[in-house]
Amino acid sequence: MDIKGQAAIVTGGASGLGAATARVLAKAGAKVAVFDLNEKAANDIANEIGGIAFACDVTLDKGASAAINAAATVHGPARVLVNCAGIGPAKRIVGKDGPMPLEDFERVIKVNLIGSFNMMRLVAAGMQAAEPLPGGERGVIISTASVAAFEGQIGQSAYASSKGAVAALTLPAAREFAQFGIRVCAIAPGIFSTPMLKGLPQETQDSLGASVPFPKRLGEPAEYAKLALHIVENGYLNGEVIRIDGALRMAPR
């Protein structure tokens, strides 16, 4: 797809991978809508890139639908969706204080999996009704999995479960939407320099970077964003979960 002039939605777009993706898509000529719970930060990114911003909880049916419709009134129906909204708290299944509270597990699944599915189903409905572009394409949906989907570490039971489900969702969604010319992929990042990791001591960040085979550093959000743009532009990428991790394979802990 030639993204120039097309409407795009980026969830979790106020920081980290989402903000980098919003910047890269806008630079490529897309009309970007930044969705995030943090409305002020979303507006800051939108003002920077010449886009629009909406406060959005991706887990809510009516709230997400309202934000999507509001974005469409300004930019037109979205042709691109990049799901970057997510959380990753660490907790053992059974810790020193006993079993993990069930609501902690549910919260991670709700944001990372249900939120991604919610946005996918709502945006895809609009894509299906859109006129096809040259070549028959109507849209591209990209979700964010993780290497934890494949090598979840101790303490990542909830996170790995949610990201594994995002990975597993990719192919059946791509198969279902193929008849409408909508492609679906997912990106599985390794250890990236996001706000969550930047909050760790520098020594810890350096140690994590050194664990990557090559290059021996944390991934940069812009590198994720460039891959997202390539997926949009490469019309033969479909139904695939693409790792971007410097050949990292996570150890148990």
From TrEMBL:
<dbReference type="InterPro" id="IPR036291">
    <property type="entry name" value="NAD(P)-bd_dom_sf"/>
</dbReference>
<dbReference type="InterPro" id="IPR020904">
    <property type="entry name" value="Sc_DH/Rdtase_CS"/>
</dbReference>
<dbReference type="InterPro" id="IPR002347">
    <property type="entry name" value="SDR_fam"/>
</dbReference>
<dbReference type="Pfam" id="PF00106">
    <property type="entry name" value="adh_short"/>
</dbReference>
<protein>
    <submittedName>
        <fullName>SDR family NAD(P)-dependent oxidoreductase</fullName>
    </submittedName>
</protein>
<comment type="similarity">
    <text>Belongs to the short-chain dehydrogenases/reductases (SDR) family.</text>
</comment>
<dbReference type="GO" id="GO:0016491">
    <property type="term" value="F:oxidoreductase activity"/>
</dbReference>
<keyword id="KW-0560">Oxidoreductase</keyword>
